[in-house]
Amino acid sequence: MTGGGRGRGTVPDAGEVIAAVRATGGAKASTYSPLYRWMWAHHDALRDELGAPGLRGQWGRVAAALAARGLTDGGGRAPTARTARETWWKVRRAKAADAAAAARPAGVAAAPASPAPLTQPPPPLPPPVLAEPADDLPPLDGPYTFELARPRGWAPGGGRPGQPNGGGGDADET
Description:
Blueprint: E1 2-3, E2 10-11, H1 14-23, H2 34-41, H3 43-50, H4 59-68, H5 81-103
Antiparallel strand pairs: 1-2
């Protein structure tokens, strides 16, 4: 153990913490299924074999072979062709992400996905088109009033069309 700061006791070594976590038999060792962990450990060999023409698309046979060796999915069931295939793709994506992270220099975060920058400025907008006053329109004749629109059959007293105290309109209009 190493000395801790501020008088709070000692800080355990990372190896001791990991050993203690592994020693607790009741706790789940990993959030990944046994199938995922096995595929992770055997990624390189699987990548070479599962990409071969003889096994490509044969996930039913692969799942049966994995189940025969006691590997299970996250629910403790024997893997199906679908779970084997999807787990393999998850492992491949995770391995690719790890490889990309390892290729970056230390302290450099992954670049966020963003749209490509503009290489040229956008073209200028055309000048606005101003409307000319129309001299050939007839003049407005009389006062006009504008009101809010009302649904057909609406009346200020409420109710429904065709009923007492409220229809206000034709009962057959809809």
